[in-house]
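worker-3 :: picked diguanylate cyclase
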Amino acid sequence: MQEPGVTLDLVEENAALRARMDYLLEQAERNHDIMCRHHSFDLDIVGAGSFPDLVGTIFRQLPVVSELDVVTLALLDVGDDIHGTMHKLGVDFADFPHLVFVQAEAELGFVPSRSPLFTGPPKPLLGPYHPAAHQAMFPHAPAGLQSIALVPLLRNKRLIGSLNLGSVDPVRFTPSMGTDFVEHMGSIIAICLENVISNEMLKYIGLTDALTGVYNRRYMDLRMLEEIARAQRQSHRVSCMYIDIDHFKLVNDSAGHQGGDEVLREVAARIKAELRLSDALGRFGGEEFVVLLIDADGDSAGVVAERIRASVALSPFALSCDASVSVSVSIGVATLGEIGRERAIEALSQELVAQADSALYRAKEGGRNRVVSFAADEG
Ligand SMILES: Nc1nc2c(ncn2[C@@H]2O[C@H](COP(=O)(O)OP(=O)(O)OP(=O)(O)O)[C@@H](O)[C@H]2O)c(=O)[nH]1
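worker-3 :: tokens ->
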């Protein structure tokens, strides 16, 4: 027969073990849950089809998945290439207040190793949040932000940015913590970022004219179909301008091919300066540009065309060879009338460009440096 004290000890021990097991089971379930959420987050970012889709997913999901109070991304963007290209592709950065662009590696805050023995890539920095040192990485830090992790984003051992995690919990990130998990997260995010950025750059190259930076003909053809379809749905007007530099051959002959290229770039810039953000400017080839004016009737298109003509003719073009050259443009304008639903969009698009081209022909015939609008009776 056992003594009563021994039985009591066993019961207590049993209860303690049971409580410990319940705790461990709860932890295991919680970890499993976190793992599943991270797995689904990984799948979502790997599947992101564009730059805004990727950064949007990171900013939306990561704070929830990792129970963080703030997540920011800093991208190393020497020469403003990434920011500039995304802007041209229509990314609205106001949608991403936690996205930071830095021009130099030093701004990311990773201290380069002073040890001659260790020259590896930077490691994550975990610890307390100090506004003076870290505010640039957290431009909209939540009140009471206490601890942070700055995780380097590396591709082929090259720093491309940092993933910055923040918590109001002072012990969420401490210098003594292991960094395997955040490094793993950083490496997946770095691959995804590099991937979408390269794809967006390729998309941009495929849609733009390398010399002037404006859209190319392929883009304009597609955009025209899109805009005419929209105009058909919303019953607004679409106008088109065909712009051709006058006697451009003479410009090339006098200023050389390089001087001619500079003139093409400057003409594109002067045209663009007169347009609304919603309008589209493309180079159709050689010295010809086409502008698509959204929600603009014939009269307002004529006014914009006249502004463009005047701005090109107003002042000579200063060239890098110290010479300057005076240039003018001729412009043909056409507007789609009531867009009946029975007409095919492709046919309407071709007709619009052909009418602007025909008006341009008249402008050239009429003496150049002028704007001519297509008249319906030209047929
Ligand atoms: N510099 C430069 N020249 C180009 C480029 N593409 C086409 N050209 C030149 O543009 C000129 C076009 O000449 P033309 O079509 O005869 O027309 P134009 O001299 O402008 O005369 P009009 O249009 O009748 O006023 C040619 O000399 C082409 O070589 C380019 O990318 N760069």
